[in-house]
Amino acid sequence: MRRLWKGIFVAAVVILASVSLFIFLISPKTTNNGSVVSICSELGASSVAKGNSTASASSSVANFLIVDADPGGPYEGMNGSAYHGLSSWPVMHVFKGQKVTIRIINCAPSEAHGFSITHYFVAGVAVRAEQSYTFTFIANTVGSFRIFCNIFCAIHPLMQNGLLVVS
How far apart are the C-alpha atoms of 67 and 128, rounded to whole Å? Predict the structure, then answer.
């Protein structure tokens, strides 16, 4: 009987060590500017994460920053979408053939926020609290595509009206 309990104990320790390693591997990594938390605090009320951005027509690349945030700050919703009612916000203008890179930073301290774009990023992503996610695609189809939060969160209704315009 003692051997059985010892085996169960060893198995539990191995499982806990594996889970701890997994959590360490997927935890937010630091960037040149520091952790995601410090990036969020550095953003403050600056206009770094614009709500209406146009890529340069002469460039083959377009880079955008999306800040997801809970109520109370300048970025509430997606880049401040909470302050724009039912109008499209954020709006990203790109040109057909451009390589588009979008970095999503979740500045919420305790909940995940989602991000999806019809046609281009249908499966979307859930970005955990105080983490970021970056993805890239080629804008190969002209049109207007909805940007929205694809998971339920506290400010979900305020994160449904973004727009990607490919011309």
Answer: 13
Beta-bridge mates of residue 63:
101
- Report pTM: 0.71
Taking the CA atoms of the chain, what radius of gyration do you get in angstroms? 20
Distance separating alpha carbons of residues 62 and 78, to the nearest angstrom: 18
Helix, strand, or coil (residue 10): helix
- Any idea where the domains of the chain sit in the sequence? 36-166
As its CATH architecture, domain 36-166 has Sandwich (2.60)
The model's pLDDT over 114-156, given as tens digits with 9 standing for 90+, comes to 999 999 999 999 999 889 999 999 999 999 999 998 988 777 7
DSSP 11: H
Q: Which amino acid is at 107?
A: C
Give the 3-state secondary structure of residue 98: coil
CA distance 153 to 112: 7
pLDDT one-digit tens code per residue, 101-113: 999 998 888 888 9
Residue of 133, 155, 163 whose CA lies nearest to 52: 163
**Helix, strand, coil fractions of the chain, as percent rounded to 5:** 25, 35, 40
